[in-house]
Amino acid sequence: MTDTLSHIDATMDDRLARLFDFIRIPSVSTDPAFAPDVARAAEWLAQTLRDMEADASVRETVGHPMVVGHLDGPADAPHVLFYGHYDVQPADPLELWNTEPFEPQLVPVEGDTHIVGRGASDDKGALMTFVEACRALIETNGSLPIRVSFLFEGEEESGSRSLPGFLEKAADELACDVVLVCDTDMWDRETPAVTTMLRGLVGQQMTIQSGDRDLHSGMFGNAAANALTVMSEVLASLRDAKGGVAIEGFYDGVQELAEETAAEWAALPFDEAGFLENVGLKVPAGEEGLPVLHQVWARPSCEIHGVWGGYTEPGFKTVIPCEAHAKLSFRLVAGQDPEKIRTAFQEHVRAKLPADCSVTFSDHGLSPAWAMDRENPYLAPTLAALSDEWGRSTTCGTGGSIPIIGALRDKLGVDALLVGFGRFDNRIHSPNEKYDLSSFRGGMRSWVRIIEKLGA
Amino acid sequence: MTDTLSHIDATMDDRLARLFDFIRIPSVSTDPAFAPDVARAAEWLAQTLRDMEADASVRETVGHPMVVGHLDGPADAPHVLFYGHYDVQPADPLELWNTEPFEPQLVPVEGDTHIVGRGASDDKGALMTFVEACRALIETNGSLPIRVSFLFEGEEESGSRSLPGFLEKAADELACDVVLVCDTDMWDRETPAVTTMLRGLVGQQMTIQSGDRDLHSGMFGNAAANALTVMSEVLASLRDAKGGVAIEGFYDGVQELAEETAAEWAALPFDEAGFLENVGLKVPAGEEGLPVLHQVWARPSCEIHGVWGGYTEPGFKTVIPCEAHAKLSFRLVAGQDPEKIRTAFQEHVRAKLPADCSVTFSDHGLSPAWAMDRENPYLAPTLAALSDEWGRSTTCGTGGSIPIIGALRDKLGVDALLVGFGRFDNRIHSPNEKYDLSSFRGGMRSWVRIIEKLGA
What we know:
Two copies of one chain form a homodimer.
Chain A: H1 2-10, H2 12-23, H3 35-51, E1 55-59, E2 66-71, E3 79-85, E4 105-109, E5 112-116, H4 124-141, E6 147-153, H5 163-169, E7 178-181, E8 193-198, E9 200-210, E10 215-216, H6 217-220, H7 227-236, H8 259-267, H9 272-277, H10 292-298, E11 301-310, E12 319-320, E13 323-332, H11 338-352, E14 357-367, E15 370-371, H12 379-390, E16 394-397, H13 404-412, E17 416-420, E18 434-436, H14 437-455
């Protein structure tokens, strides 16, 4: 193993070059204009696995394709399925990037180096820590000590619509003992973590219509319903005065955080003020009186992602718009039923509308929250391997959603182990996304240790 | 006069052809991309006046140019200044037009014909009723019975920024006994009106900033301020539960409508339900208990014209945006000070912001309301001339703003007489703007009668 770890350190340039090639492909899954690039990223990934002698191929779906690959190992060793996604979020707003989003750069910073680019962290950099760990093990040992399968999807950032069907169809081929996922953060710069709780998601888009045409505010102002006024009132009504979600029944089934877990989290060295200061904020915006960690890990939320309507070009137009649009989502915790939340939200909106206005909804994701079984036999060796590399390790929660985790448990009957090397300040989904070079190096070295320990 | 009226009817095709040429120039003043077209429209108009032997020229300003022209008449006859604007509103949303906005069309409808195109009504069609009336009088009589000056601006739809300065500089040249303005509507299809009240306008654009970057809703949702949530709450807070404007001091100085005027308006045959039904609505949205006519003519209002922020492209992005934008305006009535309203609005917004959010404002117009002196000596002959043409006439209010009216009174020391032939359903500022052929014909014929009566 020492050989493999040294080998990784000695060949960093090649490993970075491959990651850069991958980032250069603008595989934005949500925008149809990028579909050819998404397909190109899938092909690049399949070829990268084939270069390691994996049995790998691109599998078409009704949406963006899957990449599946297999690397043999000892028949009695555990069989792991590594899941990642090769699609990325849109890069906009482009004007806020300091570098080209799809032309990755190394930027030295105090104590580390940033790999900057869209997908550098989420999920191309993270995904490549595992792929490169396998490659390094094969380069030094000729083969892997466990059986490894790969599953990479291209729709994680746009709802993973094809995944459940594909998992069902390919369940036999993807049968395994545990799924490994590398799409999460470390607890802090020094402490790698296994994430044991994820929030679910209900994503919604809505269009409010008032009347059948745009109107002149001088002629109709005051008297005619304004779709943007109605939208503002609807959106404002989603939160109560104490920062909670004001939809009836929204918190039904939500459990108080177990005392033991609350105590564990309270013991974590978390700088609540610094968490917000780091992004230019200082006033916690959510439920009053709840620690920030509870809010982002263990409480459901409602966030508005986009609003548009009326005249938005330079200059001014005194129009009363007849249409207004919004995209928003709810993060869910265990105990909440996504379909019930969606229904309650839509009923809440309809109840707020004046009688002559109407609303239409469309879905952008619907997934329940997830919590890992703490008795899973792969958890302890993984935590031990992480401690070997970093000197420490922990479990934690996360506020994000990885909808696939629920699908994996449902379709393959196995649980997932979430190990990630991302940092809090990676700006994923934002301009100037980055991945620390120490995350990339430490991630590859950690996976080597985990694979060795699972194969021991 | 009968000769001139018959002459107009006999030469409608030529008069329409000139109007169509004018509409074909996309003189959108608010969008810098159309600046060359705005300049072209000014030159077209000056040439049109010169074709009538007027002393006319284009005058440069720091913004879009003015067109000024003069036609002689008897030295002892009244001197009128006709004001109009040759710029138009943007045509968007383009997809809602049934025809090309800048390719005017004649569309037959039951009982009339529509001239369809951006500016067909506001203000190109209206402006040309007066220009063509002068042309027809000269064609039949060789000269006009009064002295006429023309002032056409190219910034009416974007704040008339250059106008006050220009009026001041050109006050001697533009000295006159009364200003005529043709930018208003008839009371109904059969009844022409002189408009004696106009609302003022405070136009504002604002950007709310929360934090210094967009954030991932999974990592920061609940805990971090969301600029769109804050914007929604700010916008929703501008109206109270009874449809009034909830800004402190907003109604200070607003007078109750005089009983006499209220009675006059109550006597007008106005179908309140039909007014809204015509645009697909049925619930009056403004102040509870107030008749719609009072709301749009005699009460101040607040309308949102545009909102945008976050991810608005196809698909979905779970971002917490750090910026949100809105354009909105207040219509004012007599007694309200535009600068005080602007200050009160900005203070209201600032008071609603969380301590770690900020807001910036920019102006889009600032003008007081206006009410005409009922004793003006030109009012009675104008109403009489209108009755001669249409069989009836009336005075009325309007909810719109024509900021120039106040500037004319301030800079030239004369009042304005607002006569218009627009119809309620002309869709000005909206897709499929139209001007009725009967408005165009009746407008030209009305101006001939008014000019003759003022010269008698």
